[in-house]
Amino acid sequence: MSQKRRLVFATNNAHKLEEVAAILGDRIELLSLSDIGCHADIPETADTLEGNALLKSSYVYKEYGLDCFADDTGLEVAALGGAPGVYSARYAGGEGHDSAANMRKLLHELEGQPDRRAQFRTAISLILNGEEYLFEGVVRGEIITEARGATGFGYDPLFRPDGYDKTFAELGAEVKNRISHRAQAVRKLCEFLSKTNHSPAHH
Hints:
Layout lengths: L4 E5 L4 H11 L3 E4 L17 H16 L3 E10 L6 E2 L13 H11 L7 E12 L2 E13 L15 E3 L6 H12 L1 H15 L8
Parallel strand pairs: 1-2, 1-3
Antiparallel strand pairs: 3-4, 3-5, 5-6, 6-7
Helix pairs in contact: 1-5, 4-5
């Protein structure tokens, strides 16, 4: 009987959890921080996405000894020198995750700006048996001038990926989960896990 690999996804963001679970499918038993009883507010004080992802994954590994991964995702806008980047969730100040305020600020910063190129980047830090592995996903696109679409979260209503005439929020979860930055990083994570799957069934 094959044992499913259990992995903690170090996030309290229900949207992300749902998205990653949908991308991983049933190959992995995904545990959230609340599933393992971790209610700490893990600091995200690094100045890179990779650094923040590692802070989160290593915290869980040190405190709980469980294999886990964490992601940090940023929207990097060319005309803003890569901002908001690591500050994407709290771009408009405050404790963060106020998507409407973040989008308003972004549109304001880009007013009259001809170059609206942007990319979403996800860094995933996986800690497996004490070793760290990094995976990255990038999707390029542009910031449109007004929010469109009702699905997704964060900056999805403003981000139109290259090759599409709709925003992430209009494309819907199924398409987004196929092409997004997080999907790419999670797929790399999956490929890696399937190569290193030493569950009892394989011996």
